[in-house]
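Protein in question reproduced for absentees:

***
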Amino acid sequence: MVHDRAAGGRWHVALVVENIPLAADHRLRKQVETLLSAGHRVSVVTRRDPANAAYRRRRGLTLLEYPPPPEPEGPLGYVREYAWSFLCAALLLGWLRLRGRIDTLQLCQPPDVYFPLARVLRWGGARIVVDQRDLMPEILAARYPRAPLLMTRALYLLERRTQRVADRTVTVNHALVDRLVGAGARPEDVSVVWNGPVLARVEETSPDPALRRPGRRLIVWVGKMGLQDRVDLVLTLAETVVRRLGRSDCTFVLLGDGECLDELRSRTSDLGLDDWVRFTGWVPEETVFRHLASADIGLDTSLQEEVTPVKAIEYMAFGLPIACFDLSQTRGLVDGAAVLAPPGDVEALARVLVGLLDDEPVRQRLAEEGRRRVETRLSWERQEAAYLGAVGPAPRYGRAPAPPILHR
């Protein structure tokens, strides 16, 4: 089947995201801006959210929103959520296809449930691109250690089905490349597109003195507060630093929202840490960036080996030294720009954090290395060409030549 437009011409890209709205998905927002800046037409299927309002007026962008499902309670709740999202995506993509051609369909994964829709649109000439950010079996295990074995096996099956229908897959680190190849993808069809920030937006952000309390260091944590993110360990860390190590000269600010936010706020009060731990809830990128520009140290307490922490790239972009656990993907990303503690050892993390607070030359050295890595390799400006090369349709339907994999 032959495309009716040249590979270098204007094309229509439809993107599907399930778990968060477009306005809250930093990676998708960067991808959309890149596509629009390149002159292409973009449609996004996403859950409805008031924060999406600014995108409803964007020229060249069609926003197809559906009512968000209720927050899931337990593994079966996710089955209901994904079934609802699948139905809404099917109806909206069908409506979109009736109105005209879809050159590329991008599925933002997880969940790996949209492959039947991809197969149908592929028959109609669409190129299928999977943007794999996380792995569903690992997320399930992190959230529910006693999840049914049958459900885990089903998630591996969905992963394989998705890779079989994809023409191209982009992902966020090299460990996921290996995993997706093992799920059936061809090595030449999988590439890494790092999820770094747009440096132009970083550089236009100035510190805000009002965010700092006199005589205190500012330590920040940024992200979505899900069970698998282990934000609870930030509170354990704060209690260890303040109570056991006697360091009352610091403030921990947690930026973001999610299912754990209310519980974390309550626990903070129970621990008597309200004077040292502050939550912002969901805030726009501008507010997040002002905090990062004003902070002394960035913090990550994830225990997921396979995850590349986006927050760590953002910390490095702002010249923040990092304190985190020594996980394989994290170490490969931040080695030389962070202090590391054994995974899960909160007391060890507290001690290296306090050591970092007291050693300005080390903080400066780590900050400079982190910033250099973002400028030379990880920023979104360095990823745009690889992303466009993966998403763009080939002159003839089928597999296009793969853009180069970005090596460490």
User: Anything to note?
Assistant: Residues 150 and 156 are 10 Å apart (CA to CA). The chain is about 40% helix and 15% strand. The chain has two domains: 12-195+383-391, 199-378.
